[in-house]
Design brief:
The chain is an alpha+beta fold. Helix content is 32%, strand content 25%. It contains seven helices and 15 strands. The strands form three sheets. An eight-stranded mixed β-sheet has the order 4-3-5-6-7-8-9-10, with helices on both faces. It has a five-stranded mixed β-sheet with strand order 12-11-13-15-14, with helices on both faces. Strands 1-2 form a two-stranded antiparallel sheet. The model has no long low-confidence stretch (mean pLDDT 94). Bound molecules: D-MYO-inositol-1-phosphate and calcium ion (2 copies). The site of D-MYO-inositol-1-phosphate has 15 residues, from strand 5 and helix 3.
Length: 273
């Protein structure tokens, strides 16, 4: 893929993310509609829908033959998956609905199934993260790099919990507490896209999550990789987005975080670690 075309995709994704970010800010504190989706706690507001409509319109205007996968509207299949835009119009909906200002727009482009272009915009901090394969990663046009933290015990991590957490024992509670035990801390921001950009910007050393969807991570994956970070499955095999599990780090703590996730002991057996 020519870097010229990637730069064009990046610019259109940026246009869409900034337009959606403006909608998110405009309506801050004035939400009219907050509904639960299929699962309790999985919310959608009129701003998710409005933001998504704006993004989809901009992308379709520029690339009418590309397919789309958007969180609220689902798939728009143009007969080929060669170009697939993965869109989260408001990542951090629970935060937003409660008036907790951590949320972002996430727009990623997969080319032949591989994330190649990513834009994440946090309107609350006016931070625009951009990356495309081979073109580097930036925040507000300044190059960003992952951290240099060498060891898991010196690290600050972030993770999250999917909306099926009450229905399964594989809900990440044990891993979250175990890693809290082993590290300098584990945060839960409520926005997977911002968790990934925090890894890319070197503010956080590692992120993992299960039950995650392509629209949550497609953009962030490119941004972390272009910032020098590492993305794999929990077991360090190549990431399979359909599995819903992702491990993203500064590279240096990747192996030890992977081992901790694969070997998390049962509750209460952590004293001599
Ligand atoms: C959620 C956030 C959260 C993560 C959840 C996601 P939403 O997305 O990214 O951090 O833990 O798994 O579903 O619902 O706010 O778009
Ligand atoms: Ca999301
Ligand atoms: Ca969302």
């Amino acid at each position: 893929m020519q870097s010229q075309s990637l730069a064009i995709f990046l610019d259109i994704a940026t246009e869409a993310a900034l337009a959606a970010g403006a909608i998110i800010l405009e309506s801050w504190g004035q939400l009219q509609i907050i509904k639960e989706k299929e699962r309790s706690g999985d919310l959608v507001t009129e701003i998710d829908t409005k933001s998504e409509k704006t993004i989809v319109e901009i992308i379709q205007r520029h690339f009418p033959h590309h397919s789309l996968l958007a969180e609220e509207g689902g798939a728009i299949d143009k007969g080929s998956q060669e170009y697939l835009w993965a869109i989260d119009p408001l990542d951090g909906t629970t935060n937003y609905a409660h008036g907790y200002p951590i949320a972002a727009v996430s727009i990623g482009l997969l080319i032949q199934g591989i994330p190649r272009v990513g834009v994440v915009y946090n309107p609350f901090r006016n931070e625009l993260f951009r990356a495309a394969t081979g073109l580097g990663a930036t925040c507000n046009r300044q190059t960003i790099r992952v951290s240099n933290t060498p060891k898991l015990e010196q690290s600050l991590l972030v993770s999250g919990f999917a909306y099926d957490r009450r229905e399964t024992q594989d809900n990440n509670y044990r891993e979250f507490c175990y890693l809290t035990h082993l590290t300098q801390g584990v945060r839960r921001s409520g926005s997977a896209a911002l968790d990934l950009t925090d890894v890319a910007a070197g503010r956080i050393d590692g992120y993992w999550e299960r039950g995650i969807k392509p629209w949550d991570i497609a953009a962030g994956i490119v941004i972390v990789e272009e910032a020098g970070g590492k993305i794999t499955a929990y077991d360090q095999q190549p990431l399979n987005m359909a599995s819903g599990r992702i491990l993203a780090t500064n590279g240096k703590i990747h192996n030890s975080l992977s081992q901790a996730l694969l070997n998390t002991p049962p509750w209460g057996k952590w004293d001599n670690q």
